[in-house]
Amino acid sequence: MTLDEARIAALVREDLAHLIHPQWYAPDHQDPVIFDHGEGVWLTDVRGRRYLDGLSSLWNVAVGHGRGELADAAAEQMRKVAFTNSYTGFSNLPAIRLAAKVVELAYDNMAGVFFTNSGSESNEGALKTARFYWNLRGRPAKVKLIARERSYHGGTLATASMTGLPAFWKYFGPLVPEIVHTRRPDVLDCDCEPNSDGECAHWLEAAILREGADSVAACIAEPVKGAGGVWPPSAHYFPRLREICDRYEVLLIADEVITGFGRTGRWFALEHWGVQPDILTVAKALTSGYVPMGAFVVSAPIMEALSNLPPDARFMHAYTNSAHPTAAAVALRNLRIFEEERLVENAAAMGERLGGGLRRALGGHAHVANIRYLGLIAGLTLLRDAERGTAYDAAEGVGGKVARHMREQGGVITRFVGDQVVLAPPLVVRAEEIDQIVGAVESAVRAVTGG
Ligand SMILES: Cc1ncc(COP(=O)(O)O)c(C=O)c1O
């Protein structure tokens, strides 16, 4: 459906008046793109303009837009039943099948799944589960969570507290206590690689020692930082993190809300480095964004502890819509598409084309540094002087200008984080569409930086 300019202006006025958007800042919302429909990697707005969805909308539309199979799966399930309660004593068919499927696809040590409605709920549930587990093990003092600087874990108060980006804390304090962040140890014996954003596993050890291992329940980490600017770690980072967690009896929570289900070219990202977490959190691509659903997945020892609770203990964690039958039916069909269309393999191949293409187009450019990627998630840094590492002034808004140029001139939508441009197209993306993304990034960077 296309609309005339008068109708669009009225919609924008209504939108500004009544719809509070995430990360709301009214001056940035005077001319929003209002989407109407999509197909594959393409989105069309109410003016009839088409855009290539370079971020899978919000890293979630893995199987692409307009998938009739998912609409059919939802309709079929809704016709059967509106909703059924999944609290203890009740269950439903799609949820049972989905839990088994997620356990089959996830790391070998995984055994149990709790379904949520979002990534934030998954991470919050993971923290509660870690505390619950240590209580069951007779270690009630192990309550703290260590998160990392520049991480993103969600928008609830606890997950915003886990998030290591101070912009998400401002005016919302006080934050939740007993959630702390890694900081550089005083003496840095750091062996991190340049594209790891200076992240170093020693920082976790320093934080555990600072807090006292007996007080630490878990550490949470995104395998590839997403909202923090897309930073794949060095190859030895997660194996070291795992060792440190084991040494100090700290549970490792992998926040795979972005990386889970194929994004990095593997079903789950820690597979790249042969590491298994204790708790895995997912959302986004589980349903490819067609309906809200997330999950936290727990290892066999945690599942065993939950299966053998003492009579006075009950896992009093609940959401009405947990294991919603419609969401589960959509997720099951979505994961079948992944398998039928070999989307994880496509993510690996197209990721190489994207990352290689960006490096060929902009590697060595005077204003571009750190072109990094892992499967179909990629980022690059815009700098005033790439050789010296000098940043642009934040007020110049160079990242925003590049993203705007990409959208208006190149027809590619994506996001920027400060002066990092980030990309994560749907896993169904084809070679010619990748080439269009690379072309749009290159033209935008050259036009905006003048290089
Ligand atoms: C790594 C990560 N964790 C958690 C979340 C929170 O997920 P949600 O927005 O579904 O609550 C996000 C959202 O972008 C995320 O990127």
Number of domains: 2
CATH architecture of the largest domain: 3-Layer(aba) Sandwich
Major beta sheet, specifics?
Answer: 7 strands, mixed
**Strands, total number:** 15
| Radius of gyration based on Cα positions | 22 Å
CATH superfamily of the largest domain: Type I PLP-dependent aspartate aminotransferase-like (Major domain)
What is the CATH class name of the largest domain?
Alpha Beta
Task: Give the termini distance in whole angstroms.
Answer: 40 Å
The helix-and-strand class reads: alpha/beta
**Poorly predicted segments:** none
Strand content: 15-25%
Shape: globular
Mean pLDDT figure: 95
Order of helices and strands: HEEEHHHEHEHEHEHEEEHHHEEHEEEH
Q: How would you describe this protein?
A:
- A 7-stranded mixed β-sheet has the order 4-10-9-8-7-5-6, sandwiched between helices.
- Helix 11 packs parallel to helix 13.
- A hairpin with a 4-residue loop joins strand 2 and strand 3.
- The protein is of the alpha/beta class and 451 residues long.
- It has 2 domains: 33-63 and 342-449, Aspartate Aminotransferase, domain 1; 70-340, 3-Layer(aba) Sandwich (Aspartate Aminotransferase, domain 2), CATH 3.40.640.10.
- The chain has helices at 5-18, 56-59, 68-80, 93-105, 119-136, 157-162, 202-211, 237-247, 300-307, 325-340, 343-362, 398-408, 431-449; strands at 35-39, 42-45, 50-53, 110-116, 144-147, 179-181, 216-221, 251-255, 279-282, 294-299, 368-373, 378-382, 412-413, 415-417, 420-423.
- The two termini are 40 Å apart.
- It contains 13 helices and 15 strands.
- The protein binds pyridoxal-5'-phosphate (PLP).
- Pyridoxal-5'-phosphate binds next to helix 5.
